[in-house]
Every structure is written in C-alpha cells, then in structure tokens.
Amino acid sequence: MTRYVLQRLFGMLTVMFTVVTIVFVIVRVAPGDPAAVMLGPDATPADIEVLRVRLGLDQPLPIQYVYFLAQLARGDLGHSIFLDMPVASALLDRAEPTFFLTIFAILIASAIALPVGIMSAYKRGSFFDQAVTTLTMLAASIPSFWLGLILIQVFAVRFGWFPVAGYGGPDASFLTRMSHLVLPAVALGVVSSALITRFTRASMLDVLNDDYVRTARSKGMGEFRVIMKHAFKNALIPVLTVIGLTAALLVSGAVVTETVFSLPGVGNLVVSAVLRRDYPVIQGALLVIAAIYVLINFGIDLLYLMIDPRVRY
C-alpha cells in the first residue's frame, strides 16, 4: 500500500509538472498583450514597453518559465496584473460559490442518478427502462446554460421562488447566498445525472445475473436487500469512478453556468482573466483546477479499498 501511494504521488507530481509547462506555454503564445490591454488603446508603444519591463514580460520565455517554477516551489501562484493582489487570495475569495455549487450539483446528480439507474437495471426492457434511456440521452444533450436560462425564466422570473442571479450583497447571510445556488446547481446536476445514470444502469446489469445474487435470492433474502447489499455494493466501483470524475469536471466546467447566473466564482474569474490577458490568474486557476482533478482521482482509488476488499495495490 505504501509503495502504491508513493508511486501515485510521483505520478501526480509528473502530471502537475506537465500541466504547469503546458499552461505556461499556451498562455504565453496566446494572442494579446496584457500591458496593452491595461493601458488601453491610447497608450503609446513606449508606455507599453515600460509596463512590459515592469511586469517582467520583456524577458525571454525560458527565463519567465524558470521564474514561474521558482514561484511555484515557494507556494506562490503569482500576483494578479489587473487585480493587484496575490493570485491565491483572488482564488480564495472566489472559491466559496464554486465549491458549494459543485457540492450541490454532484449531490443532486447522485440523488437522481443512483435510484433511477438501479431501478432501470432492475426493470430492464420495461417501459420505465426505455423512458430512462430516452431521458438520459436528452439530458446529456441539453447544454447546462440553456437549462439554466429556462429555470431562471420559470422559477425566478415567473414564480419568484429563487433569486434571478448574483450571490447576494456583502452582508448577505449564508442561507441567502446558498439560495442563489439552487437553480445553477439544479441545472448542472440534471445534466450531470445523465452520465451517472447510464453508468449505474450498466454496472448493475453486469452484476444482477451473477451467481452470488441468485444465491442470495434462493436463500429467501428480501429483494431490496439483495439489490442494495449484494448487487449495488459490487457495482459501486465504476459508479464511484464516474461520480468522482463528474465532480472534478464540474469544478472546471461551471464557467458557463457561473456566467449565466452572474456568480462571482472561479469560473467568472478565469473568464475575466482571459479577456484581460491576466497571465498569473489564468495560470494559477488552471493549476489549482488540475490539482483538484488529480487529488479527486487519487481519493477515488483509495476509496476502492474501503468498498471492495478484493482490490489490492
């Protein structure tokens, strides 16, 4: 087990180093000059060059890359060009909406997908199963931003049950802020539930006809217990994998939904940074998202041991 953890940690460091390099190169070769964007269209070339020197953008890319790696080694994600604050602080200020939006969305997706997927597999070939298959294909085809707009129109504009957009004022209570996340979480959760439902159904179908399930039934065990204790428990590993990957994708994929609902999250911060060519913020946000993705995958692998004792590393 210790050897496996060390191997995974080494692999995680390798992945992160690769991500660091790719992010640095892509951000630097992208068109646009942050100095020119900051100074505006009336700036002279001399003014732009002075600002480039002050920001260190005049240095050759290898030198900038070495400085960037040295910053990361100290745990420093850099300093935002436009916000004039450390990137870590900027990300931390925007983390709450994105964090809770991801948690709520994955809870909604799991609450929908797990029982529906289990029932669909149990009633294979029935009308319910065919309806679930059709609806999951439809849900997977719906863009989350479109569903978000529909939810705003119905539940915020027409009925007034939820806020239209935003995240509450500076003095808003925790419950008020959370109420702003209900509609975006539902939009993301419904769309994400499609993939989890299909994986749950497929995984359950693989185990429902296994010998140990038939043995449990032949012993007179209740059907609910057979399904949940014997079948679902053994079908949980691939389901857990897709739930974890969905959670990781939601962290990075909530950009459009945050924009539709005007949420001051990490996604909105990244969009603003891209438009302004704020290199440090773009790099820092992408690296944090990549690190979260890697850690979630690592955590899922460790959970396998708790769910299935037959798994050995």
UniProtKB/TrEMBL annotation:
User: Domain ABC transmembrane type-1: where?
Assistant: 95-304
Q: Does the keyword Transport apply?
A: yes
- Would you say which domain of life the source belongs to? Bacteria
- Chief location: membrane
Family indicated by similarity: Belongs to the binding-protein-dependent transport system permease family.
What compartments host this protein? Cell membrane
Q: How does it sit in the membrane?
A: Multi-pass membrane protein
Keywords from the named record: Cell membrane, Membrane, Transmembrane, Transmembrane helix, Transport
Q: What does the organism's lineage look like at the top?
A: Bacteria, Pseudomonadati, Pseudomonadota, Alphaproteobacteria, Hyphomicrobiales
Annotated membrane-spanning segments are 9-30, 99-122, 134-161, 181-199, 235-261, 281-307
One Pfam assignment: BPD_transp_1
Tell me if Membrane is a UniProt keyword of this record: yes
Task: Name the coiled-coil region(s).
Answer: none
- The molecule here is called Peptide/nickel transport system permease protein
The record's listing under CDD domains reads: TM_PBP2
